[in-house]
């Protein structure tokens, strides 16, 4: 997988940078080269971003977890904690995605960046006109990834809820010699009566709650009265 590299012939070079960013995003920038760090943060601020600067990887992680930026731009080779390690910590502990900067474009560096889920890789020296399109593309990709991750979490939760409901229905069927539809109706009607979600009731029924037996009896009694 090749990560996107910025082109020097960027088409936005002559655009007013203040018109490029429609929504202000918070961007963390980490580089041990003070000239590069200052140049990028000043350029991003002028372009309408809120830039946070860090002179090393440790500070980048600290500020990232504290301020929750929309994206981190990290120099790969920094003394102490490298940009690769900082990106790993930001992603694992803050769900913050990263773009990488480096004076090198060798295969090993690109592979390391890829393994850490880099959304882009840019070779220094870099100017702000080159950087902004890469940032906007990375922000869009980051949003897409987070949406997919949330959908995956929601789907997993739904599967787990359905599994708990199925187990609870099965237990009811066995205890009271009921068919599947009757057992499901008993649980659903009791949940409505108690103004609780069916999934919550099912979780209590399949858990290790000491009240589980009494709860099953209450559901069965309620079901019989309703018939």
The number of helical runs is 8
Examine the secondary-structure arrangement and name the CATH architecture of the largest domain: 3-Layer(aba) Sandwich
User: CATH class of the largest domain, please?
Assistant: Alpha Beta
Helix content: 55-70%
Organism: Sedimenticola thiotaurini
GO biological process, one term: regulation of DNA-templated transcription
Protein name: Response regulator
Pfam families: ANTAR, Response_reg
Strand and helix map with partners:
Blueprint: E1 26-30, H1 34-46, E2 50-54, H2 57-67, E3 71-75, H3 83-94, E4 98-102, H4 107-115, E5 121-123, H5 128-176, H6 180-193, H7 198-206, H8 212-226
Parallel strand pairs: 1-2, 1-3, 3-4, 4-5
Helix pairs in contact: 2-3, 5-6, 5-7, 6-8
Could you describe the 3D structure shown?
Keywords: DNA-binding, Phosphoprotein, Transcription, Transcription regulation, Two-component regulatory system. It comes from Sedimenticola thiotaurini. With 227 residues, the chain is an alpha/beta fold. The protein has helices at residues 34-46, 57-67, 83-94, 107-115, 128-176, 180-193, 198-206, 212-226, and strands at residues 26-30, 50-54, 71-75, 98-102, 121-123. A 5-stranded parallel β-sheet has the order 2-1-3-4-5, sandwiched between helices. β1, α1 and β2 (50-54) form a beta-alpha-beta unit. α2 packs parallel to α3 (83-94), α5 crosses α7 and α6 crosses α8 (212-226). The protein is rod-shaped. Mean pLDDT is 82; it is low at 1-22.
Briefly characterize the structure:
The chain is an alpha/beta fold and 227 residues long. The chain is built from eight helices and five strands, in the order βαβαβαβαβαααα.
